[in-house]
Design goal:
This protein is α+β, with helices and mostly antiparallel strands. It contains eight helices and twelve strands. Strands 4-3-6-7-9-12-11 form a seven-stranded mixed sheet, with helices on both faces. A three-stranded antiparallel sheet has the order 1-2-5. Helix 1 packs across helix 2, helix 1 runs parallel beside helix 3 and helix 7 runs antiparallel to helix 8. The longest helix is centred in the first third of the chain and has 24 residues.
Length: 305
Amino acid sequence: MRCKQVRVLLSDDLEGALSPAMAESLRAHLSACADCRREWQLQRGIWRSLQRMPAPDAPADLHARIMTYVRGHQRARAQSLRGLLWRWVGAAVAAAALFLLGFFSARPGGVMADFKLFGSGKSSVEQDSRPVASGIRLEWRAVGGGERIPVLHAALNRQASAILAWSSEPGVPPRLAQRIWQGTLQPGKAVEIPLPLLLQQSSPRYAATLWWTVDDQHRAFFVPEGYPPMARANLRLRASLSEALAMLADAYQAPIEWLPATYSTNPTVVLDVHDATLEDALHQLLIGTGYIARQEHGHWRVLPR
């Protein structure tokens, strides 16, 4: 971790908002860097002084101000999301996005097996004459203002049933994860599912876990909320492979895909690295596990040998 990165994270550390891995990495840097340690001590002193100050009296119209702001923000966000979502690739994107926007209040079990567009009678996979590449990948889409959101893009050259499930804990097997989308993939037709609302529910310790199942074959995506990725990090851990990959995705703010040979092949791993790249950390983590790491489609994949 570099000094510039540490200075940005100091206030989050004082508020207790950092993940355990990030906090440990920051502590290691502070113990070795006198300049950053002095800056941290200065900010800690200011923080403690502010905590001792009495809270100011709230204005009489505070509630009215807040509600005015909230209603305006909700209207602006709804308009922005509608404009963004309906511009994406066909009705498949819109259907998946609308479902994700309401998945917390969806039917019991969170599944709409025959989800259709409101009033259109069209299925969640829209016919499209354009050829699409077969495969599955994560993409970060620019939405304006320098902000990017992750989108799951999936396409097959054959028809297949597919399920997307979510969990805040990487140790939850796919059959117990919360199902948030279910449908049928058609040959050469792409489905794209925006993910920002799922990532907002992630654990403070791990990146969110997304299980993508096609014809009973599972793969996991560990997707962090932040962007862009970090180049280097310090990590020390002992955990199952799935937990370790979720911690790495969180520490480096970079998505990692895992294709388990079977879910039972989730060995315990140990890692202790300092100022390491994600590539170096993955290669050290996977020694003796029967898995290898490979970078494809802009993210790292962990595969059986």
